[in-house]
Amino acid sequence: MAEAHQAVAFQFTITPEGIDFRLSHEALRQVYLSGLRSWKKKLTRIKNTVITGVYPASPSSWLFVVVAILATLYTRSDPSMGLINKIQEHLPVSGYLSHQSQTLLSALLFATLLWLAVILTMRYILKQLLSYHRWMFEVHGRMSNKTKVWLALVRIFSGRKPLLYSYQASLPHLPLPAIKDTMRRFLESVHPLLDDEQFKRMSALASDFENNLGPKLQWYLKLKALWASNYVSDWWEEYIYLRGRSPIMVNSNYYGMDFLYVTPTPIQAARAGNAIHAMMLYRRKLNREEIKPSRIPGTIIPLCSAQWERLFNTCRIPGEETDAIQHMQDSKHIAVFHRGCFWRLWLYHGGRLLSPREMECQIQKILDDTGIPQPGEEKLAALTAGDRIPWAKARKAYFGNGKNRQSLDIIEKAAFFVCLDDSEQGMMGEDPGKSLDAYAKSLLHGKTYDRWFDKSFTFIVYKNGKTGVNAEHSWADAPIVSHLWEYVLATDCFQLGYNEDGHCKGDVDFTIPPPHRLTWDIPKECQDVITSSHAVAQALAEDVDFHVLPFREFGKGCIKKCKISPDAFIQIALQLAHYRDKGKFCLTYEASMTRLFREGRTETVRSCSKQSCAFVRAMENNRIELSEKLRLFQLASEKHQHLYRMAMTGGGVDRHLFCLYVVSKYLGVDSPFLKEVLSEPWRLSTSQTPVQQVELFDLVNHPDYVSCGGGFGPVADDGYGVSYMIVGEEMINFHISCKISSSETNAHRFGRHIHQSMMDILALFSNGKKNL
């Protein structure tokens, strides 16, 4: 209990002589330094609010405008065209000021109003410029004069040295498509999946919806689009994520992997020390808004940064009907799990962030602890892995007060959650492929009770120094966690580093209090709920089949030489692989971001198109000539790129249909069309994990420092989940998931089909060049 005594700033005892106070100067010093740090953060937040609030101008530009106005007045000219005199006439304090002071104050007010008007005008112009998206549909390498002028204007009005959130007020709102456009695009997307009779029936349903119920629902959506920053995002977060009552483990959470070939140190505590320190450096940059705003790769076009706000200090809180997201402005500790025990580890001491070496020592103390879990503690986190309703009821019944409430608060209000896993993972042993698959499964669900799946993310450190991250999905999408993860991996290896013994660098302050073990009083009834949740989670985890495929035969560089979009190439290869695997086409989901718009998240690219199906059938027909196959592939690639661009620019299908469905439920009306459309399963769900911070990784000089990307669980019981990451110029990593219980799917088999399909499509181009 030493840490408890150190937390007490003073003690007193009552004696016959009076009250005897005993002050703890060290504790008072820590209180002072903690308060000082909080005030510094508040002042930084205020400063950044001002800078962001006046962007694309700067606070110093106000002084320039004031000086310019006063200088013109000094030359006896009136740039305000009489407005300064009007302001002077209506000053409420005119009776207390001299004429010269009144003139000066009126000029200051006019200059300030002029400055604000210029800022609002610049923002409006920038918002209108960013609403133009036709540049995305131009042929690559052939920029029109109109686009060149537009790009120059964007550069002029984008300002200099933006902070993370500087562009938020200038981003356009997500446009609401017309009902007829969405119906046309929807029917076009399902046409290759239906026979003539089925398509005729679906066309009739769509026509009836378009002409009757659709316009009424659309009217309400128009109101929302005018009123809200984004007509989709809040409903998407609530109804797709927070209202889901099934387990979020496997079904919603996703993971990110460590380096594929390199483990910077085999010492678990040292790797944790460097990585945790790097995460806190990232949080510091985030709090100061020093992270550069994301942009479309290779352009100056900004993307929405709103999702970064809840990266740290965030937890999903279970509810019986709907969950909620709890976000704290600050958190000074992390929660750590090791061998069934929970700990609180302070991140600061003496008003400063613990060094990597100090963090390593703190982690090592947890690893060295020989304590045993308290009753119900070891598998407590299984509550976050099972169904949501039992967890919500248990939280309300058994964690509402006392030590259970205090300990749960420490976990939920932590900066993030850390799991010190006692297993060894990574690509190793006699069967590297099998070990990589086990690594993926471990990151996705672990033992089902050793990750706190409700936290914004859980950082996992294995016994052999390998690391990974498991992230909750409701608060943000994968690119946000990926951005953090890239920074952590690069900072860990290329900035912080390790000494020759594999330990973190730096000195240690041995007066730092040790980590604090959390205490629980979990009754038998709650332990029964934990056991039940664990059984549900265990069954779900055991049903997941996973395969990680590092595709090394060729990469982005080779695909670009064929003058094909790498994403289109991969998506068409997935269509070919799926057809070879199942002998049929299916509704395909590819996630596309809509962060060109304020508070944008994702839209669906329906990758299975009429053109891609035609190409796949041609590939399986040996009688079709090579030139025809190449022509069909080109058409399929162009169509896919068009669909992707439409999704990015607000012309997708699925988010619009989803919002129309939500409105119909609010109004209490049923739509056979919407009900049927939204109940169709996505039997092939895909997503690309982009490398966003290429400058952090020198793959030319350090080719082994490549991340393996990340993955997610299958969306449909009889379908596949495929995540892929394009690494450098010569590698593509695939993460394939499905369910063992399905007789139609097998992750390794599908992986072989993907590999062969990639090779076969490349062979088309190779043979095509030979024939030229």
Automatic annotation (TrEMBL):
Which Pfam family, any one of them, does this sequence belong to? CPT_N
Q: Which PROSITE patterns match?
A: ACYLTRANSF_C_2
One example of the protein's molecular function in GO is:
carnitine O-palmitoyltransferase activity
Task: Using the UniProt record, give the first listed, main subcellular location.
Answer: mitochondrion
Sorted keywords for this record are: Acyltransferase, Fatty acid metabolism, Lipid metabolism, Membrane, Mitochondrion, Transferase, Transmembrane, Transmembrane helix, Transport
Q: Where is the active site?
A: 473 (proton acceptor)
The coiled-coil segments of this chain are none
Enzyme Commission numbers on file: 2.3.1.21
Topology of this chain in the membrane: Multi-pass membrane protein
Cellular compartments annotated = Mitochondrion outer membrane
Q: Which residues form the Choline/carnitine acyltransferase domain?
A: 174-756
Enzyme's top EC category: transferase
Q: Which InterPro entries match?
A: Carn_acyl_trans, CAT-like_dom_sf, Cho/carn_acyl_trans, Cho/carn_acyl_trans_2, CPT_N
Indicate what this protein is called per its UniProt record: carnitine O-palmitoyltransferase
Organism of origin is Erpetoichthys calabaricus
